[in-house]
Design a protein that fits this description.
There is one protein chain. This protein has about 425 residues and is α+β, with helices and mostly antiparallel strands. It is built from 13 helices and ten strands. Strands 1, 2, 3, 4, 5, 6, 7 and 10 form an eight-stranded mixed beta sheet that branches. It is elongated and about 80 Å long.
């Protein structure tokens, strides 16, 4: 969202014509009583509710062009547009410079002098600025909060409109237009979806907080040891040339949905999806290994899906805004690229962690010796979930010489 006059601070007066002593014309062609002259054009496209790209903003739309769009916006935002960017910043007691940084971090388009903001926009500025003033957040941290929230909810809103509301607003009877059923449908769904969003966010926040406070020290809260896995569809580029767009979309959606469900069900965290690839993480190697093999097994039994390959690594990972970075992540990605179809490759640190936790034997010879010793003592032999097979060392671009291990499910102890 634009914030037009970056030289104005909180509480500053609008610029005036110093040569004549008369006040400058109100922004956006407003009259002195705050009304908009008849016929004056201003933007209805750049809304604080929709992060519309700047080039797509229609700054010449008449208020009467699409009454339904205006009514829907008022319903969703819960208020009418009242403020220009400068007026909102001044009312919130926030400098234009800081307001600009907040709104752009949230992903909102520039609106120039348009009267496009509501009371909710003013309150949002007050809250963020208040957190900074109270010392609860630094200014860079507040901007990071704005950016992470904006990016996440923008994707959520796009998904809901494209995949959810579009299907539900099909005209129920011949002769009815989709727009005739949109408003009452949104009116019914809005409070339910809002409550559900807050519930899921609180659940996710509780889970993330629990993971952080269990970290061994302050450094581990940011740079943690995690198992990271990439799952990649084999031959996806060829599929994009062979399949129709709708078929390709359905395949990607099935892959992402199935992967997300398996990762969540078995205790991992889906970091992001990249069309033909998913990135996930887990606190321990055993959980990540189980997820990888489940993904392979599930996709193998689905005739509509191409083959899958997985690469995993274990080590220190830097987390930022829900994403993961570092050498461990890069190594997992490189292992994925060299894995054969329906195979899982892990790095040496991942293999060592499985051995340390008793999830896999160091070798089949060691497993046989342990079983023989247990039988001699009349005890139960060790039970291993996974098997590890060392592969030939090979150079990996940017990471030097790597010795991958082939991970499989162990069928006997």
């Amino acid at each position: 969202m634009t914030v037009g006059d970056t030289n104005s601070g909180a509480g500053a007066r609008p610029p005036s014509d110093s040569s004549s002593g008369a006040s400058a014309a109100p922004p956006n062609g407003e009259t002195s009583n705050g009304e908009t002259p008849k016929g004056h054009k201003y933007s209805y496209a750049a809304s604080s509710a929709h992060p519309t790209p700047h080039h797509a903003v229609n700054h010449t739309a008449e208020p009467s062009d699409d009454p339904l769009a205006i009514r829907l916006e008022q319903l969703i935002l819960g208020a009418d547009r009242r403020y220009t960017a400068f007026q909102a910043a001044r009312t919130a007691g926030v400098s234009m410079e800081l307001a600009s940084r907040f709104w752009r971090a949230m992903g909102f388009a520039d609106i120039g002098q348009a009267k496009a903001l509501t009371e909710a926009d003013v309150l949002a500025l007050r809250r963020l600025a208040g957190l900074v003033e109270a010392g609860l957040l630094s200014e860079p941290m507040a901007i990071q909060v704005a950016r992470s929230t904006g990016q996440t909810t923008a994707r959520l809103a796009e998904w809901q409109i494209d995949s959810f509301l579009e299907g539900l607003t099909e005209p129920p009877e011949p002769g009815m237009t989709r727009t005739e059923v949109t408003y009452p449908l949104v009116e019914l769904l809005l409070p339910e979806l809002e409550e559900f969003l807050v519930y899921v966010w609180r659940r996710q926040l509780a889970a993330a907080t629990g993971r952080v406070v269990q970290a061994a020290d302050d450094e581990e809260m940011v740079d943690r040891r995690l198992a990271v896995g990439f799952a990649d569809l084999v031959g996806f580029t060829r599929l994009t040339r062979r399949l129709e767009e709708e078929e390709l979309g359905e395949l990607v959606e099935t892959f992402e949905t199935t992967s997300a469900d398996l990762v969540a069900a078995h205790g991992g965290r889906l970091i992001k999806t990249l069309g033909d690839e998913v990135l996930y993480a887990a606190d321990d190697a055993g959980t990540a290994a189980e997820i990888a093999l489940r993904l392979i097994e599930t996709m193998t039994h689905d005739e509509t899906m191409p083959a899958l390959r997985v690469g995993m690594a274990f080590g220190t990972v830097t987390t930022r805004m829900g994403d993961v970075f570092g050498t461990t992540v890069n190594l997992a990605s490189r292992l994925t690229s060299i894995a054969l179809k329906d195979a899982v490759l892990v790095d040496g640190a991942f293999a060592e962690e499985l051995v340390r936790t008793g999830d896999a034997p160091a070798s089949e010879t060691e497993a046989a010796e342990a079983a023989a010793a247990a039988e001699k003592e009349g005890e139960e032999p060790p039970s291993y979930r996974f098997a590890l097979q060392p592969m030939w060392q090979r150079p990996v671009r940017g990471l030097g010489l790597v010795e991958p291990w082939l991970l499989s499910r162990r069928t006997s102890s």
